[in-house]
Amino acid sequence: MTTRRTAAWAMAAMLGAIGGCRSEPAGRKAPADRAEALKQSLAVDVSGLKSADTQPLIIMDETPLQPPPRPADPLKLPEDDPLHWYDMEYAGWRGRKVNLPRSPGDGALGKRVICLRHMDHPYTTAYTRGMEKVAGACGIRLKTLTAGNADVNIQSQQVDQVVNERPDLVILFPVDATAVVPMLRKLNQAGVPIIASNLLPVDQGMPYVLTWTGPDDWGQFRMLAREFAKRMNHEGGYCIVRHMPGGSPFFSRTFSVVTELKKIAPRMKCFDMQTTLLEAEKTAQVVSGWITKYGAELKGIVSADDSGAQIGINEACRNAGREDIIRVAAGNSKVGMDFIKAGKLHGITYQSAEADGALPMKIAADWFNGKEDLKPVYYLPKHVITAKDVDQYMPAQW
Amino acid sequence: MTPSAPAPTRAAARPPGRARPFAKAAAAAYRYRVYLLCTIIFAVMGAAAPHFLTPGNFSNVLKGTSTNLPAAVGFTIVLIAGQLDLSVGSAMTMGGILVMGLSPSLGWAGAFGVAVLCGLGLGLTNGLLVAKARINSFIVTLGTMIIVYNAMAIYCRGGTIPATTFALSDFLQRPVVDLDPRGAPPALLWLTLWLTPRNLVSLAVMAAAAVFLRRTPAGRGLHLMGGNPQAAWYSGLHVDRYVIGAFALSGLLAAVGGAVVAAGEAAGSLKLGENSLMTIVAAVIIGGTSMEGGKGTVVGTTVALVALTALINGLSCLGAGHEVQLVASGLVLALIILYDAYWLHRRQRRRGQRKDLLEELQARAASDPPAGRGSQGAPSAPGPGREGRSHG
Amino acid sequence: MSPPPPAARRTRPPAGGRVFGALNVLGVYGLVGGLFALGCAISREFISPDNLMNALRAVTLLGIVAVGLAFVTYSRHYVDLSIPGIMALSGTVAVWALKFGFVPSLAIGLAVGALVGLVNGLVIGYLRLNPIIWTLAMMSLLSGVIRWAYAGRQIYPDKATAAGRAFLELYHHRLLGLLPLPVAVLLAVAAGGYFLMRHTGYGARLKLTGSAYEVARLTGINVRRAVAGAFVISSLTSAAAGVLLTSFNKVGAVYIGGGYDFRTITAVVLGGMTLAGGRGSIVGVLGGVAAIALMNNVMSLVRVGQFVLGDFQQNIVQGAVFILVVGINSFARRRTGGDDA
After folding, report:
1. Are residues A254 and A359 in the same domain?
2. Strands in B159-270 per DSSP E
3. Contacts of B291 in chain C (CB under 8 A)
4. Do A229 and A110 fall into the same domain?
5. Which residues of chain C have pLDDT under 70?
6. Which of A280, A285, A293 lies closest to C45 in CB terms?
7. Which one of A15, A23, A204 has the shortest CB-CB distance to B44?
8. Which chain A residues are closer than 8 Å to C297 by Cβ?
9. Tell me: the pLDDT tens digits for A192-207?
10. What are the percentages of helix, strand and coil residues in chain C, rounded to 5?
11. Is residue B261 part of a domain?
């Protein structure tokens, strides 16, 4: 009967599809002798690799970490005091560690690493590309999982799955800096080595990880704020378009600017800060409301995203004939860099997605090779891209 | 209906007396389709995915199920009553954030109490607006979903609320019979690893709801009310109270679910219940609850939720990306509802056809010689034909 | 939901019938007028043409999609939850098809959207599946397919080609140098929708299908085709809005169109169209869209010293107003003797 035949075809198709999506990616098999494996692994040199925008792939910021002393209760301080955000901004700088696993010391060849990403996004696609380049060079088997659409529950389930599978190392890109702390603890108690990546977990979670690598969100937005203030001559009103609620850039890309500007440009006033979920249309609506409401007093806009949100900002400015508004954003996507070239955006932070993905993998390879004295946090270098040097960063990674 | 030229149905065309092969099997397959689906998924994933058929992974699948289970049970109850409750995801978020936010000041018991009460309040509001103000439940719950989510966003200022200690979270996640995973025999691990207080709470909720729906008069009244509100009204049920009660239960259970999840994860996040609504709706429909109301089981919902969670889990074990998981869950839902529609169509076609009478007359016509104009073979098929298939 | 007691029968019009009668006729435009007055009271800048143009621009695409969805709701099939997926798919396919030229790319984008709508319409119209569940499954499938087809990347129109540049300018193009293209599309779609719903046989058939499906079927109307047509119309408008939105965003990506499903049904229902089908008009839907635009605008202009209405607060107000307006609508309808929705 047709029903049975259709059912059989459907079953075959399903099995075929499932078979087709098996992706335990490659990786080289390690030689049986441990010393030989270590020697081969140490011989691998990844410093020459380049990312898609022709910049070097493995880059890191070498400035030493000197955190200020921690106040007794940061949360009691007002929000525009930079020390209120101590546990977020200086997370992990003091370097206390708990129950860290020891390195196996026999090289990176053939080791299994699972990367847990927070969502599907062109940025994370470039991130995984960078990670796979290094993994391929070092002979590491990489499996990448995505936590749905930045879904905390799914990341928690994937962490459970990782505990069950026991890989040699986990690279974790948290969905939420606070909610990830129990997950890190669980992995730590199961003896799985962790390198956290991109999103800095709060300070309470840092003792459980080997180290963390990623962009210095707080630091580079402070750098951006300084550029912003310079262009605004240290006076005038500004508004901030925030990132998505429920994540850490919601705070880091907002309050770093507010606290920095309060210090260096006390005459500048923050009128409003709103989240627009990074949607272009919604941002256009909100910003045009701001322009109507604050009029000529509004002189600058800071944005947490240089693609979707910035399109909305620029649309609103153009419609209102307010091209004089100083605009800066977090970068660096193709749309943002195009805006810089056209003069519609005055500064974006440089954040190489491929370098962001490559660095934890490189640190993991070093750790497998026996290097156990890791820094508490590894930051990517900070830079603000302006019209003067935007061409060095093309073609865009995403 | 005037008899027209006889259109012999499929049943009449077959020689009488021969039972259709596989008929009973097909009917059983339909009735237990959700169990069949679950078995197929476990079999396929177990064969194809590494690490899937391990006690640890099984425990993970059940843990993923128990995340959405209380809210799904509540949704089932409301759907049986013939209404929609789109606010279950936001109610979960509310339960989670309130429990985490209030626990430093009120203690765990107090915080749980307040979270549950707020869930109850939300449910009562929904129920009152639907029953008394007579606003469509889709509209009401869409509005309250938005209101509750944003109220919680204001309460937690867009951030996540961490737990002050890990004690409760550890208690909820540790199995009741705690064996060392590396030392214990696998058979025992299969039985004990998933028996955590968190899973037990969800299972208890499911069991209580199942008993309520099947065995109590109120539960049976709920079925009647969803299936045929007119008949329920005529038989004296206070229809309004049932509606309000169903929504109140749904809000309460969703808040309980969210609170337990947040306590177990030691963090109350705004994204707790964000994607729950779609998963819950899919699971409830796959589990056999009808969108028109009046029919459905909580056990079916649970098994469907296990099946969906196992599907996503298995694909994750394979390393398949998020897109494959989306397509797979969409496909499973689509196939199940197509299967449902097909079965309904077959049943409608046969409705009103008196099969045995037809077969008898066919037999008689076959044995008697044809006698001119009088007998034209089988009388006009009483079946409704193509247009008889009305929307369920 | 409960049937009226059989004995009592009204012998004179219900009290307050005239007030609620007026409310019925005014419908959502009463709300629009009220918001207008509120806006003028709150802020001086409200009445400026710039501000009103901004408010209009924010909801143009929403209006286009809402007109299409109105047909689906009119036919008593609740809502089409696959709208965001159709928008993203049409936009992304249009960008991909730019290599065939500018006009072919638009045609291909619209065709792909219409194809999805056709599948929806066939399944829901002919197989009689529940629209909410089916469109939910379709949304899941579409977003998975888009992510898979582009491997998580977003695709950019190529600025080096004339077709790419034309596509990037599409959203900002002004007809005759004056009328922005999206507004023109909205007006055309609204006029077409109004004509289709009010003055054609199809509209009349759809109305009867939405009000009384069985009666329509027995009268000989091809109800299945009417319902399928409604879904195709909805997907066509979504595809058009998706292409415009992609042009606005300068990139074809999977997140285009997010949030549109619930926002559109809000606009449609606010505009007087009931979920029970068969009642409402395109004029009302446009009023609902205008009401949403004005509500957002008025709330964003609130400025009392340091106090401003943040995003979360605005959403709460919107949700509450939504329930209130629909409640008043259905109450008014019942009071004036109509059925309850």
Report:
1. no
2. 161-162, 267-268
3. 130, 132-133
4. no
5. 1-18, 20-25, 338-341
6. A293
7. A15
8. 289
9. 999 999 988 888 889 9
10. 70, 0, 25
11. yes
